[in-house]
Design brief:
Layout (H helix, E strand, L loop, with lengths): L2 H7 L2 E12 L4 E4 L4 E9 L2 E5 L5 E3 L4 E4 L5 E4 L5 H7 L1 E2 H6 L13 E10 L6 H5 L4 E3 L7 H15 L5 H23 L4 H7 L1 H12 L7 H8 L3 H12 L3 H19 L4 H8 L4 H12 L3 H17 L1
Parallel strand pairs: 2-8
Antiparallel strand pairs: 1-9, 2-7, 3-6, 3-9, 4-5, 4-7, 6-10
Length: about 325
């Protein structure tokens, strides 16, 4: 897999929750912080988004916004300020319960959004995901991010009419939406750390190699040869951009992969050790406990409990 796919897969839990929200008149809804990422796509009308650390963000038709860290926020039909939000905003669930019926030709002031949550395991977040700002606002500009726009159109079409296969199509489109929003952010933030990391041909080549086969017996010399540079050049560029040497990154990523396999599969510890490049389950267990502070068995039990909680929300 590639770095972005792996970064998302390492934290993604279950299926996303989503809803089509229709409101008109004056409204103001509050969503408290949670472990996950939230999103809005404006289908009709306009609204404003406010977090504790930002000015109101105006959202128009076709705009998409991602809140990758589950930041608490208020969304309203007017440019709300924090003081007004405290006295006016109602819980988001209450706002959903009060939403209007499908629009008629006379509803000129209605706002319609697709909103939802991706459940994330924030205990093992890849630095690419951690770098995302509290709000990723992707305005609807002509010719901008055509893949994202196509995904939004497909999603809205599926919600307009529930058809055969919708139960598979909708979660898949929502997962695709997350990938495209992160990809769009990387294009819009070329000075960010990870956009620069993946824009550097040497470091990107080494990361592709590590992520494509983390269990391989990599060395800095092997990675340098794969990237077509000297050992010292790779070590310098990789460490400067990523923040840790190639072999330290590989060790960390192998343990993240092991944690993901413990969470998502019933594989034995021996099988997982083989898949992530450890010579024995004992060696993996020792390294895992040093990194996460718990044994692999305890981690699997905790992850199972977290996944069960997500399934009931």
């Amino acid at each position: 897999m590639d770095v972005v796919s792996d970064a998302i897969s390492a934290v993604h839990l279950g299926h996303p929750w989503f809803h089509r929200m229709r409101t008109n008149g004056t409204w103001c809804a509050r969503l408290d912080p949670y472990d996950g990422a939230g999103f809005y796509v404006v289908i009709k009308g306009r609204c404003w988004l406010l977090t504790d650390n930002s000015a109101p963000v105006p959202l128009g038709v076709g705009d998409a916004v991602l809140l990758p860290h589950g930041t608490g926020h208020v969304i309203a039909d007017f440019p709300i300020d924090p003081a007004t939000a405290k006295t006016t905003a109602v819980p988001f669930e209450q706002s959903l319960a009060q939403q209007t019926e499908p629009p008629t030709q006379h509803d000129h002031h209605e706002t319609e959004t697709i909103c939802g949550k991706y459940w994330l395991d924030c205990s093992r977040m890849h630095p690419l995901m951690a770098e995302l700002p509290d709000i990723v606002h992707l305005p609807n500009r002509v010719g901008s991010h055509p893949e994202l726009r196509a995904a939004i159109d497909l999603l809205a079409g599926e919600l307009d009419e529930i058809r055969c296969g919708s139960c598979v199509a909708l979660p898949s489109l929502l997962d695709l939406l997350l990938v495209y929003m992160i990809r769009a952010w990387m294009t819009e933030a070329p000075n960010g750390v990870w956009p620069r990391v993946l824009g550097d041909p040497v470091t990107a080549a080494a990361l592709r190699a590590l992520h494509s086969d983390p269990a391989a017996p990599w060395s800095t010399d092997c990675l340098a040869a794969d990237a077509g540079v000297s050992r010292s050049t790779l070590a310098r560029r990789f460490t400067t951009l990523v923040g840790r040497p190639p072999m330290a990154y590989l060790t960390w990523w192998r343990l993240i992969r092991a944690a993901t396999l413990l969470r998502d599969t019933q594989d034995t510890l021996a099988a997982i050790a083989d898949r992530v490049g450890y010579r024995s389950p004992y060696a993996l267990s020792h390294a895992f406990q040093r990194e996460f502070g718990v044994t692999p068995g305890r981690y699997r039990a905790q992850a199972t409990a977290r996944s069960a909680d997500v399934g009931t929300d």
